[in-house]
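the two lines:
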Amino acid sequence: MADNLLFFTELMGMPVLDLKGRRIGRVKDAALVPRDHPSRIDRYLVGGGDAWLTVRYDQIATVSRDAGIRLSDEQLVPYHDDDCILRIARDLRDQQIIDVTGRKVVRVTDLTMEIRLEDGRATLHVVEVDIGLRSMVRSLLQGMPSRWIRRLQEPIAPHSIRWELCNVLESDPLRRLRLAIGYQKLEEMHPADLADIVEELSPAVREAIIETIDSEVAADTLSEIDPKMQAAILESLEPEKAADIVEEMAPDEAADALSELGEETSEEILEEMEAAPKTEVEELLEFEEDTAGGMMNTEYVALPETARVADAMTALRANEDLLEQLNTIFLVDAQERLVASVPLARLFVAPADAQLREMASDPLIQVPVDESQHRVAEQFDKYNLLTLPVVDEEGKLAGVITADDIISLLRQK
Amino acid sequence: MRRLLSRFRYHILIFFAVIGPGFITAMVDNDSGGIFTYSAAGARWGYLPLWTLLPITLVLIITQEMCSRMGAVTGKGLADLIREEFGLRVTFVMMTLLVVTNFSNVVAEFAGVASSLELFHVSRFISVPLSAVAVWFLVVKGNYRSVEKIFLFASLLYVSYIISGILVRPDWKEAAIYSVKPVLLLEPGYIYMLIGMVGTTIAPWMQFYLQSAVVEKGITAKDYAASRVEVVFGCIMTDVIAFFIIVACAGAIYSVAPKDIQDAKEAALGLKPFGQYAFLLFSAGLFNASIFAASILPLSTAYSVCEGLGFEAGVDKRMKEAPIFYLLYTLLIAAGAGAVLLPNFPLVKMILLSQVLNGALLPFVLIPMILLINRRDLMQEWVNPRWFNLITWVTVAFMIGITAALVAVTIKGM
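prediction for all of em together
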């Protein structure tokens, strides 16, 4: 074990010595000021006598495991709580944090810090958050001579997360601001992974995350969350914020989420939404949940039946946000009635002036909006579909059901 | 119309969404130890002990309500909260005690499985291993929702006690009178029985299980009202069943010849003269209660321990993802069932021991609970109101006193 590493459990209770080498107290806690420096221990809270004292990092000369902390400046002020400090023993140890790369919620047992020399002064920097058995041994035995503990824990494999890859959780928005805790790191995760994490957290933190992250990411994440929890989260948000998120969701997901909410809340959210997504969602809300209409979404590309490959390409460019999910293009006649569906892949092997009509799948498979869920699933199975168009009473294209809707449906059973 | 329908559906959904945790916990409370205690009370003292059921119900409601409220408001399990607020050392000690205590309970449940099926002439060497394997598979291979449905169904089977209570044709008038008329006899046996009845009601594992289950269910402070109704309803049902067990044994055994019974099997046999059905239902009820508790206890223990110590847990995780959880779960079942199969294993003593351990651990669970539930930073406006605190502290002091007495008396008796 390198000698420049110090565990938080070893720092706790370490003696603090003044210029003459007299002990003034022991370390009770240490704190970061994330706004000044993300990893440097800024303050040491020292207990001695009646009150705690605050030692700033630039008042320290040396830190060592055997000799404790030696000060270089004795002008200490009494400790007072401050919203800008993240106290390790109080706010971090034993609490949950997010391991961003491991995509998990973990509980902090101990911290590994590094003793660095800066301007001839010893400073401590948090390098790792320790979880798992090894740190548990240290934590349980805290207070015993550190040499023994280090020897005892040696054979156990370490389990740690680099400090930069941790996301500290805080539900109070004001304090989050003061502590400069952001959730940007979470935005880079896959929404499905983030959803798993969010589901594991307590409601307060869960809401804080959804509220803070970018609306688009929040929408994607929310779509992956269990419907009941989805409803609870949306209800806890300000209607405006909820509306921003719901707008970014796929219309069918949005309609599902809103239908889980109470009448009043869902009205309030719809109220705040912009006109275009609002109408789409409202239309979908009209359908019974267990029919084709309730399952479908309205994110599709439909072209006139006379369209050619080049037209399709133009349409796709205009609908770039749909591309990730899209696998079929629909053709409709002048009355918007569905006449054909064209698998997207066919476009790649056809000349630009080819008629889309000629590449259509045969036969045309479609279902009416009031078709039962069960029958819809059957059609997918029977015809091995990826996408199934849904038409209204007049044969007009109303929406599409995609294979992922079917998979969620079957998994629910 | 559509709106009206959807609003109605919303409320129904909320109710069914929260039914489960509180009800299941309360039902499992009548496990093999509980059934033994109630049977013994009825067989020896007849209708006299019935009055205790009202105060017992009250105490049960108070503790269970606190847990489910804490779960709903904080969204965290009890073990989680203890870890966050009291640190690793306290949690570690508590979890170690919980494992030991719950292990003795698991053994007691498998002992219940063994003795109930022996009434049907099934050897314990067949019944116990089969039950253990079934329980293990049910939870590990089934998904949470279907497991919960099975548990809810198992709760319904407790009705068998109500029916067998009726089949025995007890003296209803006397049962009604003694349900509200406190009788205190200053006989050691009677006092011991009273202590035992209160002692079996509130077990440490219930607090952990209920709170985690409430969290798992995603019940929040907003729909907590429905959850509270469910908890209260569950607690009342628990004691209704206790009532019928006592009445059945009072009618069948006490009114013929009062006697001290040694285990629940004997109680079932005592019902035999009153018809095959009364006997069958009573024995089937014992089997159901034992196997039901045997499925929940190991699961709940593994869950609490992993939650508190920060290991991955959950039946939805794969074994590789949550190795400690599955290891602990499997060990509890395997060792619990294995212990019952040891030659000359003292089944009755084990049930008594599990009660002693439950009682001894209880204060260590109840006190942190009260401290936590009064923290405004955790519970916001949901902290205990002052009068509730008063009742709770009295309850806790009473429970601690009574379980201390139970522990003392049982150890003396062992």
